[in-house]
Amino acid sequence: MERLDKFLCDSGVGTRSQVKPIIKAGRVTVDGAVVRDGSMKINPEAQTVCLDGNPLGGHRRLVVMLNKPAGYITATEDPVEKTVMELLPAQYRDLKPVGRLDKATEGLLLFTNDGDLLHKLISPKKEIPKVYYARHEGTASPEDVEAFRAGLTLRDGTVCRSAGLEPLGAGESLITVCEGKYHQVRRMMASRGMHVTYLERRKEGTLELGDLPRGQLRELTEEEILAHLIDF
Ligand code: URA
Fold first, then answer.
1. What tens digit of pLDDT does each residue of 158-176 get?
2. Residue of 66, 73, 101, 195 best suited for mutating to test ligand 1, as the one with most atoms within 8 Å of CB
3. pLDDT of residue 80
4. pLDDT at residue 43 is higher than 90
5. FRET partner for 88 with CA separation of 20 to 30 A, picked from 43, 114, 150, 213?
6. How far apart are CA 69 and CA 72, in angstroms?
7. What's the rounded Cα separation, in Å, for the pair 89 and 217?
8. Residue nearest to atom 4 of ligand 1 (CA)
């Protein structure tokens, strides 16, 4: 453990006196939370310290994209179920999943060691659009498209924000949502009488799953992180 202000000095941010106002201004976060007390003790091995959102101290920012197969829950551990962490090689085991996909849902799932980025990507305020491909009972009608656009109210009274519904033909649609309520896409479709039989996330922000094979993962480059997840 070491003091936060010393860690910032050692990381080349500046001298003790230069670092102090930077911390006071709220520009430094530890695991995503703003810290204004330079005397706070941190563990640089286990915690991510960011200045203006950029990780410090050689703790390289990592974002990994997984094409999640069905059958794994999005959790870091579980006594019963298989978790998505089991799909990650050992060097990525300290990353955290960004948001959640249901056990039965496949497709794009991100993991990162950057607490600030994680927070940004899952914050409902940021309204990052996520695109899902669904196979379902019935066929989406123009009235369904309009109901999605207007904002659905689910059977339990949950009010959803405006969402996109693009029918691809009989029993197939693309759905775009900017929030991540529990089983949201399945429940939205069910509220219009279209039970979902298959669901895959294909896009998050401007980042696409592409042709990454199911069960495989790849590291995003810093250029991809900036272009698709930060400056888009
Ligand atoms: N909506 C769902 O219903 N399930 C998911 O996994 C993601 C969005």
1. 999 999 999 999 999 999 9
2. 101
3. 96
4. no
5. 43
6. 7
7. 9
8. 183
* Number of Cβ within a 10 Å radius of residue 67: 21
Q: Is 102 part of the annotated catalytic residue set? A: yes
Contact 72, 83 (CB under 8 A): yes
CB neighbours of 61 closer than 8 A, spacing ≥ 6?
54, 55, 112, 113, 114, 117, 222, 225
Give the β-pairing of 63-68 and 106-112.
Answer: antiparallel
Instruction: Tell me the pairing of strands 130-136 and 196-204.
Output: antiparallel
Task: Report how far residue 8's alpha carbon sits from residue 17's, in angstroms, rounded to the nearest whole number.
Answer: 11
For the entire predicted model, the pTM comes to 0.76
> Are 192 and 213 in contact, with CB atoms under 8 Å apart?
no
CATH number of 63-124+216-230: 3.30.70.580
Architecture in CATH for domain 2-55: Roll (3.10)
Question: What kind of fold does domain 129-204 have according to CATH?
Answer: Alpha-Beta Plaits (3.30.70)
CA distance 232 to 230: 6
Name the 3-class secondary structure at 172. strand
